[in-house]
Amino acid sequence: MKLLIFILLLLTASCKGGPSSTVNGVSGVPAAPPMTYYTHTVKWQGETVSIIAGWYTGDIENWKALGEANPGINPNRISEGLKILIPENIMKTHSPMPKEFVDTFYPKPRQPKEPSKPATPPAKPATPPAEEEEPVLFGPKN
Which of 36, 79, 117, 140 has a Cα at 20 to 30 A from 90? Predict the structure, then answer.
């Protein structure tokens, strides 16, 4: 214990003139800047933490960072009105996420095809057909 106090005193003495902030009551250790967050409110059906990360950070893999910033949220249970905190230090945009961006992650519903109209039969020739020849028969003769 005496050795620990001695080391702390040495560190404190050597850091005079340096940062005067404290971390956990120990002087000389610079304090981390406070983390700031942007708040996104879920508005659209189909939003996921990865889609939100993709819009605001440019990388859907940042869903893990969003999960860490929102420990009380189950990433598999996102519902309308839920507030998601996004660390500002990884953000690429502050613009609200549009529905069109969410829709790009889902296939578009197939549009039913209109039944095609039957092809118009070709017009009959205006000239009467020439006399037809009797077909040549084949097979056993009687």
Answer: 79
- Cα–Cα distances in Å, from 56 out to 13, 61, 69? 45, 12, 14
DSSP state of 63: H
Domain positions in the chain: 40-107
pLDDT in tens, the chain (142 residues): 555 555 555 555 555 544 444 455 556 667 777 889 999 999 999 999 999 999 999 999 999 999 999 999 999 999 999 999 999 999 999 999 999 999 999 998 887 777 666 667 666 666 666 677 777 777 777 6
Give the residues across from 84 on adjacent strands.
Answer: 40
